Amino acid sequence: MKENFQLKVSDILQRKHFENAMVVAGAEGLHHIVKWVHVVEVKNIRNLLSGQELILSTGVAWQEDHLFFTMVEQLIENQAAGLCIELGTYLTEIPSEVIEIANQHHFPIIAFQQEVPFVEITQDIHSLMINQQYRMISDLENYSQSLNKRLLSIETYEDILQFIFSSLDVQIIFRLRNQEYEFVPEINGNDQKALIKELEGAKAGINRQFAYAPIYLFGQEYAELYLFSPELPISEFDLLILDRTATALAQHLLRDLYVEEKKRVEEFEWLQGWLDGEHSEEGINEYLLEQGFKPKTSDAVVLIAKVSALKEKSSQDVTYLKLLFRSVFEQNGFAVFSVEKRNSLVFILLNNRTKKNLKERIKKAIESIHESEFMKKQNTAKMFIGTGKFVESLCKLHKSYFTAKETVRIHQEMTKKELYTFYEDLHLYRLISQINKHIDLQELVLEYLQPVIQYDQKYNGKLLETLKAYLECNGSKQETSNRLFIVRQTLYHRLQKLENLLGPDFMEHEKRVAIEFMILVNDYLAPSGQKKEFKAR
């Protein structure tokens, strides 16, 4: 199949009108591939060729030896397939220096000893090429149909690799992410090492013996597929077959992942018991070994992803979302177990690297998920991810789960909505949440901030916003005015009004700390509607 669509110079020598043609130079280049035929009768063609053209000429513009030599140099430089020159009318012989440079570069020069019809030659060869293109399209369609039928019944991706090998008869190289290279047909270890080394070198530059197709799942490169042809350059047909096969492999691998994810749903009860602290460390390690996972550390954390309208989504979308999380977090060094809740997805992350930079890797993974095509298409769905406390023992995972739930609950009360929040970053909000369970914090807020809140409600004076910025800027008037985008005079006026309402000592240490804390409490309480009650009082 491969040779059917690679027309070489040697093949053209067998065509009509080439019966009496002679190869006068560059015989070692007769294997050159021909993609088109051009008639050239000009002195400069540097910008007219794209490579692999067979040139026909009478030499009318190259009758002087130096012009002929310069022309052949240009053809070699532009990677033309060869030159067919008609002798007799304008040229009687090929200059020796032209023959010498052609032999050096294995550039075929074919001489017609008598006048030949260039029109008929180009028509014949172009017709042959066009017919080859039609056959290539037909064979490609047949390959695609056969491959699609096989996808319905094949069990492993190895069957697909065997199918492309039987069709192209070239070396197939395949590698799943973070795994070893596989070779079809199998070759010995030394040949594998040499080929891998050559393959790595080919990635950095152009190598017509290799072709490469990445296989993407969820916007991430999941596998690599290569073709290696030691004898003939990779053809356009090979590249098309490679592309079709890469797509089929992606579909098959995605199906495998989908089936695997479905099986994981059956593990829900055991995982829920783990989250509730019902399993011993011995039982947890035994379960992980059954799953084929041996943890490198005991570091773990629980994430809760709250996705709006999750109940309304199809089970296919939810499964795909879990696959997306699993794929991205695994690439960032975590083993992932998931539990589906009513309006959220719970993910257990086990650190699978010796490094302790869990937080940075989690941030990177969440950002990647947020920027994925799948999430961008979910126009109506909003997502928040609450991360619990990091634990260093697998049997203490319930503590991370509890704090992850607390993180989500606190986030729902906060004014500022982020894509994700870590429990350890909540600081005073954790304290506010606990105090709010036992004390009416609203009374405390009113005790400190009621004059400011009432003034803003009556005059829209933006004093609370100014107070918050002024405290965050540690009393720097210039930084505060820049942050609020107001002139200094406006800021001075507002600060004077705050001093009148809160007292001239509002920036003294103890009172300032209390006011800062009450601003956080106000932000925490605001979404629940307390601001309306402030006004009523």
Summary, kept brief:
The protein is an alpha/beta fold and 537 residues long. The chain folds into 4 domains: 124 residues, Udp-n-acetylmuramoylalanyl-d-glutamate--2,6- Diaminopimelate Ligase, Chain: A, domain 1, CATH 3.40.1390.20; 109 residues, GAF domain (Beta-Lactamase), CATH 3.30.450; 159 residues, Alpha-Beta Plaits (2-Layer Sandwich), CATH 3.30.70.270; 102 residues, Orthogonal Bundle (Arc Repressor Mutant, subunit A).
Provide an overview of this structure.
The chain is α/β, with parallel strands linked by helices and 537 residues long. It folds into four domains: 3-126, 3-Layer(aba) Sandwich (Udp-n-acetylmuramoylalanyl-d-glutamate--2,6- Diaminopimelate Ligase, Chain: A, domain 1); 154-262, GAF domain (Beta-Lactamase, 2-Layer Sandwich), CATH 3.30.450.40; 267-425, Alpha-Beta Plaits, CATH 3.30.70.270; 435-536, Arc Repressor Mutant, subunit A (Orthogonal Bundle), CATH 1.10.10. Helices cover 51% and strands 15% of the residues. It is built from 20 helices and 14 strands. Strands 1-5-4-3-2 form a five-stranded mixed β-sheet, with helices on both faces. It has a five-stranded mixed β-sheet with strand order 11-12-10-13-14, with helices on both faces. Helix 14 (428-436) crosses helix 19 (509-525) and helix 15 packs across helix 20. The model is unreliable at 528-537 (pLDDT under 50). It holds the Pfam family HTH_30.
